[in-house]
Amino acid sequence: MKDSIHQRHIRVAISYFAMAALLGVLLRFYPIFSFGFNYRYMVHAHSHIALLGWVYVALTTLIHYCFVEKGTSDKKYTRIFWFTQVSLVGMLLTFPFQGYALFSIFFSTLFLIMSYVFFHYFSRNSDPKFRHGNSLRCIRAALWYMVISSLGPWALGIIMGTLGAQSIWYRLAIYFYLHFQYNGWMLLALIGLFLFAMERRDMVIPKKSFMWFSWILNAGVVLTFFLSTLWIEPPPLLYVLAGIGAIAQGCGLVLLWAMAKYDIKVLPLSKLQALLMKTAVFLVFIKIALQLLTALPYFARIATMYLDLTIGYLHMTFLGMISIGLFFLVDYFGLFVISKKAYQWYFWGFLVTEILIFYKGFAAWVQWPIFKGYMEILALVSLSILCGLLLLMVLNRNRT
Question: Where are the transmembrane segments (predicted)?
């Protein structure tokens, strides 16, 4: 019973991902067909459903599946899950039509409250046998980062009511939220779930080594927030702290890989699972390299001036590192089958759109012309991501 619940919940998460991809395709075709919707409102819907519908639902489902004792508090978890869905569907039905307004803010607030409820529920119901495991320590840290990130949305209301949406504090609040979502909550949760897979095979990283990794990585997570402030050209100290943070985060992840790489060979991985894991790890280190680069003042200005470079980085992090990491985990734990054909549709769509987005940003930087038909090609290639996700849903539709 428990397994079928989690399988259904992962299918719900994938459905949100497909919906976010559909909204993304509409946004890509917007300048071509001049659709009648409000572009900015649709961006809000796209980003909220992608982050909160796909990633949050998938991660919390995996966390519950792995760390909550079987047969305990299933009813509470189910209630939390469905109240969360009310908030997500509410956002999906309001953001495209009104942007940030009364009803969308209501459902966004409801989501934040339900995330706190999940945090409290998990703190009370995690299986005692994992209490001293490294994996549970990572998950707890991840959930704390999730709570910390929520300070950004709460601050937005105050900032809009006092300083206005044009204030630099408005953008900083958004960047605060995104940073601790991507680099804190999501990254630490993926690491914690990966460590759980290792611990289940009796492969344990020594406590002292893990503590070094934990301190270094968490210092990196906190300090790399300053990378998100460099667009305001702050005092030199913040550049130094941002650089230290990027180095610390990179060192922490390299240390983790060095400690785990030999044990990984013992994991019973299929060829596709091994490919998914290696791809996610590769993209993690690409992300770290870009962070190191943007800690330098010159490249920080470039990233600020050319929005496509920032969009490419965020899509690489979300569609690449996080989503492919989640594909690996749901397939490894047997909650959702990632087929090779569907993944190929998804991956090639992701790869080519990334190349095109980064090309546009690079071309603006070096003053190259954009080739004819760029928008049409980008829009058509984006369909590949949606097709891959829809194929995944079809292939898993009869699975229980």
Answer: 12-33, 45-68, 80-97, 103-122, 143-168, 174-198, 210-232, 238-259, 280-300, 312-338, 345-368, 374-395
Q: How far is CA 80 from CA 54, 111, 123, in A?
A: 16, 10, 14
Token pair recorded at residue 240: 């130094």
Residue 324, CB-side half-sphere exposure with 13 Å CA sphere: 30
Query: CA-CA distance, 205 to 53, in Å (whole number)?
Result: 32
CA angle 321, 255, 122 (to 5 degrees): 60
Say how far apart CA 150 and CA 110 lie, in whole Å.
Answer: 12
Quick one: DSSP state of residue 132? T
**Vertex 235: Cα angle to 232 and 237 (nearest 5):** 125
Residue 185 structure tokens: 């909550």
Helix axes 207-223, 187-199, angle to 10 degrees: 170
Q: For residues 15 and 9, give the distance between their C-alpha atoms in angstroms, rounded to a whole number.
A: 10
Reading the chain (400 residues) residue by residue, the pLDDT tens digits are: 345 899 999 999 999 999 999 999 999 999 998 888 899 999 999 999 999 999 999 999 999 999 997 766 678 999 999 999 999 999 999 999 988 888 999 999 999 999 999 999 999 988 888 888 899 999 999 999 999 999 999 998 888 878 877 888 888 999 999 999 999 999 999 999 999 998 888 777 888 888 999 999 999 999 999 999 888 888 889 999 999 999 999 999 999 988 887 778 778 899 999 999 999 999 999 999 999 999 888 888 898 889 899 999 999 999 999 999 999 999 999 999 999 999 999 999 999 999 999 999 999 999 998 999 999 999 999 999 999 999 999 999 866 5
Q: Around Cβ 360, how many Cβ atoms within 10 Å?
A: 22
